[in-house]
Design a protein that fits this description.
The chain is of the alpha/beta class. It contains five helices and seven strands. Strands 1-7-6-2-5-4-3 form a seven-stranded mixed β-sheet. α1 crosses α2. The radius of gyration is 15 Å and the shape is globular. The structure holds adenosine-5'-diphosphate and magnesium ion. The site of adenosine-5'-diphosphate has 18 residues, from α1, α2 and β7.
Length: 167
């Protein structure tokens, strides 16, 4: 069977987006980096909220536009949610001690990863989100064997949990 390197999914609502993020979150392993591509308003943070729900975070999730990164701790695992929109240049990540975030134990979700190109480790998964009518089209692309494993296991119809949560 050929390796599963790319996958397309449609999310016709915010809830469907959270459900898809949740489904992926259940498959992520410590050390993985997920790059989230898409314009402002594409749904990167909404998808991230779904991922964080899978780890047990039930509160609000905001894009850390000004702080660049927001940590969410779950026992031994920390999920770092990055938003590099306001990053001046990729090298700034070095001053921020970017390496410390990638110790093999934590998971990184990165919005605007292109702004950190050259200073960010390679992504295990790239998710490109574009508008499609009222909803969104998501294109998943694996960048590692672990990424391939996630795509192989991603359900066709993710279950919608109580996705709204507190905003
Ligand atoms: P980004 O982080 O990419 O800038 P957000 O996650 O903040 O985008 O989402 C922007 C808006 O798009 C929000 O109002 C959100 O509810 C909405 N949205 C996200 N995903 C979907 C979807 N699949 N279908 C419809 N609306 C969505
Ligand atoms: Mg965002």
């Amino acid at each position: 069977m050929p390796e599963l390197l790319t996958l397309q999914r449609h999310a016709d609502s915010e809830d469907a987006m959270v459900a898809l993020g949740h489904a992926l979150g259940e498959l992520l392993l410590p050390g993985m980096l997920v790059a989230l591509h898409g314009d402002l308003g594409a749904g990167k943070t909404t998808f991230s909220r779904g991922v964080l729900r899978a780890f047990g975070h039930s509160g609000a999730v905001k894009s850390p536009t000004y702080t660049l990164v927001e940590p969410y701790s779950f026992g031994d695992t920390t999920v770092y949610h990055f938003d590099l929109y306001r990053l001046g240049e990729a090298e700034e990540l070095e001053y921020l001690g970017i390496r410390d975030y990638f110790d093999g134990h934590s998971i990184a979700l990165v919005e605007w990863p292109e702004r950190g190109a050259g200073s960010l480790p390679a992504a295990d998964l790239r998710v490109a989100i574009v508008s499609a009518g009222e909803g969104r089209e998501l294109r998943f692309e694996a960048g590692s064997q672990r990424g391939i494993e996630c795509l192989r296991q991603l359900p066709n119809e993710p279950v919608k949990h109580d996705a709204s949560g507190a905003q």
